[in-house]
Amino acid sequence: MSNNVLELRNIMKVYSNGVVANKNVSFELKEGEIHAVVGENGAGKSTLMKILFGMERPSSGEIIFKGSKVEIENSNKAIDMGIGMVHQHFMLVPSFTVVQNMILGIEPKKGINIDYNKATQMIKELGDKYNLRVDPEMKVKDLSVGMKQKVEILKALLRGAKILILDEPTAVLTPQETEELFVQLMKLKDNGHTIIFISHKLKEVKSICDKVTIIRKGVTYGTYNVADVTQSQISNLMVGRNVVLKYDKSKSEAGKAVLNVKGVSCKGAEGKELLKDIQFTANKGKILGIAGVEGNGQRELINVITGGRRNYDGEVLFNDKNIRSMNVKALRKSGMSYIPEDRMTQGVAASAAISENLAANRYESQEIKSGILMDVKKLSKLANKLVEDYDIVCKSIAQKVESLSGGNIQKVVVARECSIEPDILIAEQPTRGVDVGAAEIIHKEILKLRDRGAAVLLVSADLSEAMELSDALLVMYEGEFVAYIDNPSETTEEELGLYMLGVKKQSREEIRRAVNEF
Amino acid sequence: MNFENRFELIRTFAAVTISLILGFAIILLVSDEPLSSIYYFVIGPVLKTRYIGNVIELAIPLIFSGLATVILFQTSLFNLGAEGVFYFSGLMAAIVGIGLSLPAPLHAIVAIAAGGLFGMLLMFMIGYFKAKWNASELVISLMFNSIFYGIGLYILNYFFRDPDIAGFASFKMQKTVLLANIIPKTRIHSGLIIALVTVLLAYLFLYRTKWGYEIRMTGINGDFARYSGMNTTKAIIIASIAAGIISGIGGAVEVIGMYDRFRWAALPGLGFDGALIAMLAKNKPGSTIYAALFLAYIRIGADLMARMTNIPSEMVFIMQAVIILLISGGKFLEKYRQKALLREVKKNA
Amino acid sequence: MRSLLDIILTPDFAFSAIRVTTPLLFAALGALISDRAGAANIGLEGIMLMAALAGVVFSAYTQSALIGLLGAILIGLLTASMLAYFTLKLKTDVILGGIALNFFANGGTIFVLYYLTGDKGTSASLASMVLPNIHIPVIRNIPILGEIVSGHNVLTYIAILSAIGVWYVLEKTALGLRIRSVGENENAAKSVGVNVMKIRYIALALSGVFAGMGGAFLSMGYVSWFSRGMSAGRGWIALAAEAMGRGTVLGTTLSSVLFGVADALSNTLQLLNIPAELIRILPYVATVVGLLAYAIRETNKRKAKG
Ligand SMILES: Nc1ncnc2c1ncn2[C@@H]1O[C@H](COP(=O)(O)OP(=O)(O)O)[C@@H](O)[C@H]1O
Ligand SMILES: [Mg+2]
């Protein structure tokens, strides 16, 4: 007999909105190993793990646990089987204390009351055993991210987890916290636990995992001993081709400055400085990239520029007009296009037709109106043209956007924003969670727009995207710019990494090159 | 027709069928003469021209309240204020009919305009409270129904009640205000034409104007609407106003079309029916006509049944509730949908 | 104006305020417990109405007030379960589900009433029972205080105990912890194997029990018969009370009392020379005003923050 604790065979998962998250996944887990599952955003890793943890049911396929076929109907069943999971997005109740979060569902009782003394005791003991210490009385909402993760791991251990699933645990951690996590994971391994470790950081996989399974677009492409494969072999399998993007970029001259950001600063609700003296100029005909680890102020900066946040110091000039005097509509009308980071919440009206989504930035223009009424014929002509130009795969323009795949939904957004010939396009993580084919189309459209003379402000956490597309690149760290790089495709990822993690910082003068003086 | 639309249609039919079966079950359970009950319920409304007329007459106000609710639901507003508006605007139209002296078509127009105006004011308030302060439009609209019913009753009792007639009624309205009968042997009045025109206007408003577009996008995804530069506060208020005008006109038309005095001693319930109509119509203005006819048909059927047998017509309310529950049940027939979806995906793969 | 004060500043008025607060408090507790579980119960109005009829019918046919009460609670429980089935299982929109339930109650009660009595208005022809009033020993003899707090219907005292009970369950017990977790972060609860559906079902069932008692009070305490539409918006007012109380037991109780006072006032003012039609709208106006005041405050707070 094999010593597989868990085996998946030909798993398929179709979400109720028709998205095929897992097409054909097979995967074997041996007792006592740390097993990496790697794949791009949207490859279906989280879905697979949710299936293992009983939070989603597979549409077809088999799960074999210790040699016999099982159905994992719900998380209780998974917990009973000794499976624990630390989710990509933490599953904690913010207003509860650490103890309350830990004992939820397995509350020790005294009479009809919860026995908090006993609960605290249990947690202390467990924490001592695994060297994971947290203050049980703290409210979870007051904990740091690293602490929250510890709570999550303890939660799983408290429930007797022998197989521990960690879904992108390091995405939110600082390098030190990551180190600490790895030490703890090794300790768990020594204690006989089996760990599934999801990541797309190959270095991490190399450093602590025994096995690696690669998943791409919902299909697994084999399991390897980590020692036997190189990072570039893994990454080739992950994306199905060489990761390094290469586009034929024509030279383009910097045109008029359309966006002038002058000394913008702002503070968050708790008085934390979110942006510190941000200055730069975006010129027509150029792509200005902003790179950085997510959560370093990019979101707030874009919010200010696109009119979402009014509460800031400094000023932003768009086509020489102060944007304080403009609302979102005025900004959009005077030539600002914006591809938002989160397409489902902001970028589209999911249950409206493709054509109606395409109309959002021109529904008042004669482009799709005749007199005061909207012209259905004009709109469908326009929509059909955009669907063709931007290669949006759909059955008809009347189809609801929500029934499209992620990549095609994003193409709808890109088509809408690029086709009005804006003065500036703000593109925020434009290819996140999008398949490679769609990403390539989107990249090419952004380049075309620049060649037609628009300014582009590209915010991306994806280094190869930022480096390959940008004509100049700013790096953000903790709310300020730490580097200005005028030849992004010539620098190395390592160099950028040092800036992104705050290890290196350019001088003030060097960063000031991002501003055109007049 | 694409997969989703087809499925939605199937669901609607299934919900209606289940409610009809439930109706029959109730009849079988409580009726001494189940067969004739079912006969009157199902066939009754087409037995006489007059009954067919009754169905259409009843459909007229239902189209108005359905349209008003369609606009509100499309904006994701759960506002049931059409009920109070129907009552209050109906009364205002009656007052115009009693108190003013104007030549024939103008009098009716003024009465209807008065109804629309008061409807607009009432709904504007509810919409404003929602848009500005996010105050629950559901609770406020229901409170408004009671409040304006009370105020209306006061106005009626103290100023316009006819003491000389038995029962509860206002003074007689002048002949010039009453809507003309358009089909002999029935009481179908020219309000039908107004209703159909309103359907067309509501469709144009929702689907062909920029306001309609903003309203619908606000209803589907407010974040998206704001991201696109739309003023969602304004959209909510405009939608409320439009719904108020339509339901106000509906109340006025009903009163001057069907009666010669104002006779509603209680809230008429027509505004509430808008919720069912809107759901049956899948929030499409054009479909409110069919939905209203359907509801009017089972109402008249139930009335006839109640008259001929011992089954109270309120049975229809029970069926109505079941239809709403099932149609809005996103997971109703989900297993069927999942299977069909999987087939579709595998076919395309 | 003197006469108004004279009327309000009496033990009688306080007594009557407590009395009319009873059904509001029951319904508001129902709103509270379901809302804390993240499964808003919009059907309270209808549930109360059906329970009110059930109380009359059960007590009339068994000649037992207790069985009447149990019948009302049972119907409350069953109706809330039906709502739970639709909203939790079939994913019916909670608001539309609640609206539907109220339609159902409006038509259904008249249907049953007519079927049983041949009357569509009231249950006057049914010899139904009322629940007893309780005179608290010792306290009853204290001047003023005794007049205010003693001699209420047994359900009034049960309402007060229920409020304390709901607080205790939410704060001290495992069920309460689960209810709150499900309401605040459903996924967190799910991820530790808490059966979200079950907890919500329990919360909705409990809210049905409370609304059931509220309904029983209306037809077996407040008055001794059923009449159509007798819940008269209390289920909606309770929702407003719960919102204004920000989902806390104390806040909800206090706002219920506030609306109870408005209700009592409208009853009392009928003695004065003001048109009854206008006085009757007082509780509804108070609800609108209360809800708006709450909403405006919340909006300002949000603005101040962001
Ligand atoms: N609950 C859901 N409903 C519908 N689609 C989903 C859901 N969760 C994830 N998806 C889609 O499934 C695909 C795979 O997502 P996921 O498993 O989260 O990928 P990964 O974790 O590898 O980034 C994506 O296209 C995503 O948009
Ligand atoms: Mg994931």
Bound small molecules, deduplicated: adenosine-5'-diphosphate, magnesium ion
Helix content of chain A: 25-40%
From the 3D coordinates, which CATH architecture of the largest domain in chain A would you assign? 3-Layer(aba) Sandwich
What quaternary form is this? heterotrimer
| Strand tally of chain A | 24
Task: Write structural notes for this entry.
- The complex is a heterotrimer of chains A (518), B (349) and C (306).
- Chain A has 518 residues and is α/β, with parallel strands linked by helices.
- Chain A has 18 helices and 24 strands.
- Chain A has three domains: 4-239, Rossmann fold (3-Layer(aba) Sandwich), CATH 3.40.50.300; 247-335 and 424-431 and 453-518, P-loop containing nucleotide triphosphate hydrolases (Rossmann fold, 3-Layer(aba) Sandwich), CATH 3.40.50.300; 341-419, no CATH class.
- The longest helix of chain A is centred in the middle third of the chain and has 16 residues, at 175-190.
- Chain A is globular and about 70 Å long.
- The N and C termini of chain A lie far apart (76 Å).
- The mean pLDDT of chain A is 89.
- Chain B has helices at residues 3-30, 34-42, 49-74, 82-99, 104-133, 137-160, 191-208, 210-220, 222-227, 232-258, 270-280, 288-308, 315-327, 334-348.
- In chain B, 74% of the residues lie in helices and 0% in strands.
- The two termini of chain B are 20 Å apart.
- Chain B has a domain at 51-288.
- Chain B has 349 residues and is mainly alpha-helical.
- By secondary structure, chain C is mainly α.
- Chain C has 14 helices and two strands.
- Chain C is globular and about 60 Å long.
- Chain C has one domain (13-231).
- Chain C is 75% helix and 1% strand.
- The chains are: A alpha/beta (518), B mainly alpha (349), C mainly alpha (306).
- Chains in contact: A-B, A-C, B-C.
- The structure holds adenosine-5'-diphosphate and magnesium ion.
- Adenosine-5'-diphosphate (ADP) binds at residues 15, 17, 19, 21, 39, 41-47, 406 of chain A.
